[in-house]
Amino acid sequence: MENNQQMRKWLDDMNLSHPLVIAGPCSAETEDQVLKIAHDLKDTDVNYYRAGIWKPRTRPGNFEGVGALGLKWLQKVKEETGLKTTTEVANATHVKLALEHDIDMLWIGARSTVSPFIMQEIADALEGTDKIVLVKNPVNPDLSLWLGGIERLHTAGITKLGAIHRGFSTYKKTKYRNIPEWQLAIEFQNKFPDMPLICDPSHIAGKRDLVFDISQTALDLNYDGLMVETHHDPNNAWSDAAQQVTPSNLVHMMRDLKIRKETDEASEYNKKISGLRTQIDELDNELLELLGNRMKVSDEIGQLKKQRNVAVLQSNRWNAILGRMILEGETKGLSEEFVLRMFKAIHQESINHQEKIIKA
């Protein structure tokens, strides 16, 4: 895919004084709900009003959206507030209906991006459109799959393209609903610096109290905008209640977010070091997760030793681990002194855990 500034022309043409803001409810629930939220967002920094019409759900039986009826509600939003509209499309039928109702922007969700067949079907349905089309990252951290979906749209003649970073699924329990994997999004930016990149902090967070910090990180990494799920009564929302903010909270958030734009020769340095520091922060979080999981295993070993009346310290086992880790560390550029200090500290913490269990 050719990398040039034509990719971001649609965004530059908007001549915004702030990052692009896409906001609105996770799901269109009723006409009154859609219009109320739209009027609350009318005179704010919001540029596009979002609402899910078709909701892909992991398991059947949950609310799966109001369907095409909701497109008429979005038309009313545009008529009454002047806000441009956007919704998710997952197949050719969705595309056809959205275009017929003059939806201004379409996005393709994470569950669709994982399938080249679905992406090609949508690309064929959109061929030649002048609508803006955004592509969310796939649910799994696969950069090639993400780029491949965008390339299919580009090959179909769609020039107004952008990407949405909404985080990645993981079987591990973390503070995020979907782990951000910032380093992968940074790699995406490095490959296509002229492709508009939007952050979806709502789906990364899963909880509204994390949305602000994730948004700030995205802006620090020079993202072009934010897609924030917004509901006038989030606690009673029909889907994703925990991660939606109120319109007033969104206004406060946009006011408090810091936009760091450099104009001198140091800007490239600041961009790179910010990206690298974010990678370190993410890796540090992963280290703590791994150490926490290691201690849980140590606790289980402590329980076994207590049952069998076995001593906590097993010197032969410990010396074997230490020797192996020193050799492994050398292959990764880590000094013997560092490896010794680190694993002695880890081993001592394991002993503390096991002694606590045995003495209990």
Automatic annotation (TrEMBL):
GO BP annotation list: chorismate metabolic process
Keyword annotations of the record: Coiled coil, Transferase
GO MF annotation list: chorismate mutase activity; transferase activity
Family matches, as SMART domains: CM_2
Domain of life of the native organism: Bacteria
Catalytic activity, EC: 5.4.99.5
Gene3D superfamilies tied to this protein: Aldolase class I, Chorismate mutase
InterPro entries noted in UniProt: Aldolase_TIM, Chorismate_II_sf, Class-I_DAHP_synthase, CM_dom_sf, CM_II_prokaryot, DAHP1/KDSA
Residue stretches making up the Chorismate mutase domain: 267-358
Keyword Transferase: yes
Coiled coil: 259-300
Protein name (database record): chorismate mutase
